[in-house]
Request: fold
Amino acid sequence: AACTSATAFPARTIDCARGPAPKQDRSIRTKALVLRAAAELFAARGFRHTSVKDVADRVEMTKGAVYFHYPSKESLAVAVVEHHYARWPELLEEIREEGLSPLDTAAEMLNRAAVAFRDDVVVQAGARLQLERPEIDATLPTPYVDWTELLTGLLTAARDEGRLREGVEPAAAARSLVAGFFGMQHISDVLEHRADIVERWREVGGLMFFALRA
Ligand SMILES: CCC[C@@H]1OCC(CO)=C1C(=O)O
Reply:
């Protein structure tokens, strides 16, 4: 029977009848542990003040063992940012199962993103690394564009079913939501380490969706 190994991220099915391929599964588990340790350090201290040695010490491994999985500190940063962005398509799939309208799906995506920015260290680390892009000699994913594209699609569907306020242009509204959320989460981070982000988004998002609904 296929089952999902709890440790690997993204979730990977393994044949429970034969059990996990020990070596491969251990390697995936180790890679996930290294990534999480790097995210914890990047989120807390930033890219510049985190060394591969710090990551190795945090998971009680040698630097060589870390380099086996990630050849440089930059590759760790790229992986953390990529895992940050991987959260959102997963979130969309979860919400889609609830069968909400496109506009309510957009609202729920951002509501749950606010919770992830408060609670998920990989999301927090990815956001900080994106601010530190100029210091990171690697090709990081372009920020903001995936959210803008996702929200544009949902708002276009909302307009097509008559649930968007007359005259609101979906792409422009999507850019406004992204700007609003980005600014809100940054202010909440600077002032309150994001402790109040859900309340702050309820205000900003509440006003914006009030303006967007037909
Ligand atoms: C949803 C607003 C955009 C989002 O907020 C923080 C951040 C980090 O760069 C984002 C991104 O790159 O998409």
